[in-house]
Structures are given as structure tokens and as C-alpha cells.
Amino acid sequence: MTWCRAVRTARSAAVFVFGVVGAAGCGDDGVTPSPPVPEVTWYRDIQPLVERSCASCHDGAGVGGVALTDVETARRLAALMALRVGAGDMPPPVLDPSCRSYEGAERMSLTAEERLRFDAWARDGAPLGDPSDAPPPQRATDAIASPDATLEMPEAHEVTLDDDGNEYFCVVLDNPFTAPAWITAFEAAVGDPAVVHHMAVYRDLGGDAGIGYGVAPGTRAFPCRDPVIELDWQLLHSWAPGVGVTRLPEGAGVRVEPGEQLVLQMHYFGRRGTSSLDRSGVRLQLSSEPPRAEVYMDVFGPVPFTIPAGAGAHTERSSTPNEGPPQLVYGLLPHMHLLGRSYRAWVERDGGADECAARGEFEFHHQALYMFDEPLRWGTGDRFVAECTWDNTAKSEGQFQLPPQDVPWGEGTNQEMCFMVAYLSKE
Ligand code: HEC
Description:
Jelly Rolls, binds heme C
């Protein structure tokens, strides 16, 4: 790096923190004065962030609507981008990687410095800079190379959004298994990315999916408002835009049986009036040999509870001791309902060595399953603590009744939950 670039880089870093502008007097040959260099440019500083952390929803086809990957759109919306990024609601909040590192963390979140960079760019008038400054493209395209099975909706669904722009729709998938199999990786096969906001795969332990939603036995497709109201549905996988392939570690797998009922739940979201025919599904990587570790899903969290009307930050907590052999936790999906504000989970050990499992702001419309880089050990005698905080004031973004009422624990959207859904196995 030349001396001038070094100065410029150091000064750029200062800009993000202190808002200093101007780097005059540093010509390319280090002698001739030249006009001030724009501090933050599209090509060098912003486009790489947009490709990395926004494109999965904002490439024109995705749920974000506006194509921020298009330079003219990005320049026009520079101030709005800075505002949404600065407020912390774009990209949508995810598990805080400083609590625990997980697959895709650097893609799904921005550092404090990167957030300020959007602001600096907007305030400088959104300069383009020099295309040759652009780093090599690095949009993530993670995929299962050759899936062993693809479970798809039997036919395309005509998406019909309600006044708030949502539709929840469930389909019983064909179960292709003729012998027990172990799923080692899941990949969402998104039909129409413009409307698919979230999808989840469940197994219905009773084999009677739809009964809780009041449809006739044997119905293959039915509306199924989230949160799931059938208590015998066990979550196998959950996906939201921006999340890549869910891979279990080497030697671990989720068992599926022939004949068991697999249900795909779709959450569609978009502007009312958007028309779409969607046919989504899930691609699987399988192992026909029993893996070393059979992975199961379990939930941690307090039950039951009541959130008092008007409470701005009501917190509930559970502590679950491991009374059996040591377990490993491979990943977590924090789950609350509309009033959810934030969550925390950790393993508490005798002697005070606590280990963070999850921490973050909660966003109902962006629930993701996070796969840890290193499994978390829940040893014999260790306590798994799960904690959630809700906002039940009139101003709460998710408030659905005015004046606010006491909200009990329960499966309905007008009730609340605090679950850390976990992938676990014996150590
Ligand atoms: C997981 C999907 C997702 C990601 C990733 C994401 N967004 Fe969004 N974004 C949305 C959705 C959905 C909306 C529309 C709803 C809303 O405004 O909250 C939106 C809206 C916006 C808007 C308002 C657009 C308008 O016309 O009103 C801006 C600006 C924005 N996003 C900026 C960003 C930036 C910048 C990034 C990356 C740093 C980003 N978003 C990453 C999903 C996403």
C-alpha cells in the first residue's frame, strides 16, 4: 500500500467514526495536490455490502421489492437506506454473532462501521467512484450440489395476500421414503422469491395435519395461519431469505421414516394485489446409513405465563437442567409471536462458566434457524436458560389489540410464546 492510500484508508476509517470529510493534498504521485477524494463510493464501499448483505432480498426478484443492486435505484434511495440501516431494521435483525458465531453471520449482519458507511455515502451525495475500485463480486450462492431428494408442493399455489400482505398456506408433501433415512442438509427450493417470506417443514406426529385448522381429514392443502396451532407438529427445518443451506455437522443427521406426514408451511408476503403462482419445496441431502449422532429437535422455554397489559419490557425465563448424558446443541431457532422484542439463551455451568447460545432483537417476520460454527455443549447438570422479552404497550409494533390486554401463553397469534427450538444430539 502506498503512503497516500494508507492515509486515505486511515482517514476513511475516521470518517465512519467521526464524520470527518476531505482528504486533500494527496495526489497519485504523492506530490501533486489533487481534488479531495470522495471518502465513500458506491463501487468501492457500498456495492460490496449490498451484494453481500442486501441482495438476497433486494435484487429485484426478492421479498425486499426495491432492487438495491441497481446503482440508480440505490442512489435514489441512499438516504432511506442509511435511515433503515442506521435504525438497525435493515438487514432484518439476526442473532448477534458476538454471542455465538454461526454459518452466514457475516452475510446476514453489518458491523457498526459498515452501518455508518451507508450514512457517510448518503451525506456525501452518493458518489459512484471508480468502477476499477470494485472488489471481485462475492454474492453468496450456496446450494446442495446434487440433492438426494426434492420434496415439492404437488401443484403450484395461487398466492392470495390479505389486507396486511400476508398469506399462510400448508401442504402435505409426498413422503418419498421407503426405508428410514437421515437428512444431513436442507435447502429451501423457493418457487417465487418475490413473495416467499418464510417457510418451514414439520412432521405431524399424529398424521392428521389440518385437524387443528378445521379442514376435513385427508385435505392436502389448507390455510394455516402462523403460529402453528397443532401441538403435535415437530419442526424439522425453517428458512427465511438470506439464510443458505442448513448443513448438519459431519456424522449427524435427522431421521425421517417412511409413511410419516411431512408438512410444508409457506408464509407469503408482499403488496396486496401482487399475483403469483408459487411452487416451492425443499431439497435434501441424505444418508442411508445411520449417522454417528441422531439429531432431534427439542424446545426450551418458559410455560405458561401472562404478559400484563401495558408492560413495555416484560421478561420470562426458564432454566432446564440436563439430567441425562451430555448433549450437543448444533443450532437454534428463536421463536416468539407478534409482541416479541428480544431474546437471550445460554448454558449455565457450575463454577460460573456460562456460555452464550443466542442473543438478539426479535422480528416476527424474519425467523431464522442459526447453525453454530461450533456445537454448544449442554453437559450433565448444566442448565439451559431461555429468556424472552415482550412489548405489550399500545406503541408496540406487533400490537394487535387496543387498548392492550393481558396476553397469555398459547399457540394462537393473539397469544405469546418463548421457544428456543434446537437441533440436538447426544455428545
Ligand atoms: C431478509 C430480507 C432482507 C434483507 C437481507 C434486507 N432487506 Fe431491506 N427490506 C426487506 C423487506 C421485506 C422490505 C419491505 C418491508 C419494510 O419496508 O420493512 C425491505 C425494505 C427496505 C427498504 C425500504 C424500501 C422502500 O421502498 O420503502 C430499504 C431502504 C431497505 N430495505 C434497505 C436494505 C438494505 C440497505 C439492506 C442491506 C444492508 C437490506 N435492506 C437487507 C427485506 C430485506
